[in-house]
């Protein structure tokens, strides 16, 4: 990890706007979103379906070019995939014909870089995959495959880890296990993490702050701070604070969806009437 100038946020999203040019016209997916993620923070992004969460996250990774606005890492503009930013997706995306270890090494082969095998072994141990390196992906459960994806993402020692609905396809128990694992890895490495999730519980359990997006066009509607110390135990999920926060976030998401749907219906009725 490169030395950094702490006068800048770790990841700075400034007025990020993205228009997709589609056959049926231009679609404003995110509109002037600004967010400063500090070093060592875990930030979750929640919001209605189609509110631009993935678009915002992919823009942070440099995989999507913004229409206007910019993303900066340690004060430096991000214009494309960056070695200090790694991503984990909902699908582990493992090559089925390669062993687990060969999958983890694959991005290094593409880049012509030398993997730090001791670090990879340490990560494999950390996520409970010690001894599984020579297995094929089909021999691993969905949760184990996501652990491999996590090792692959962390093998580069990124300073920012972006996760797009990483545990969305897993059952509730495995998901909880993965949330604990993410927290443990975070406490070991203090990697800055930005996570898109549909689960408010997951967002509360993991995050320092939760960003709520409005229905399309996606704007940052609110940002909530989660006040619990780490490591967090599942017991916090039964507290009144969590109940109230969950209720507030749900109301923000659902209320916004309903009011935008109502506006669309009224606009359609008006245009029919005229
Ligand atoms: N490559 C693309 N081309 C055209 N439109 C796109 C593209 N990717 C996303 N969109 C549109 O942009 C809007 C935001 O999509 P995005 O996937 O970022 O939202 P999201 O909040 O992550 O949605 P979900 O929660 O359903 O995954 C949606 O209306 C979507 O259809």
UniProtKB/TrEMBL annotation:
Domain of life from the UniProt record: Bacteria
Protein's UniProt keywords contain ATP-binding: yes
Keywords assigned: ATP-binding, Nucleotide-binding, Transport
Organism: Aquibaculum arenosum
Family recorded in the similarity comment: Belongs to the ABC transporter superfamily.
Residue stretches making up the ABC transporter domain: 11-240
GO molecular function term, any single one: ATP binding
Annotated protein name in UniProt: ABC transporter ATP-binding protein
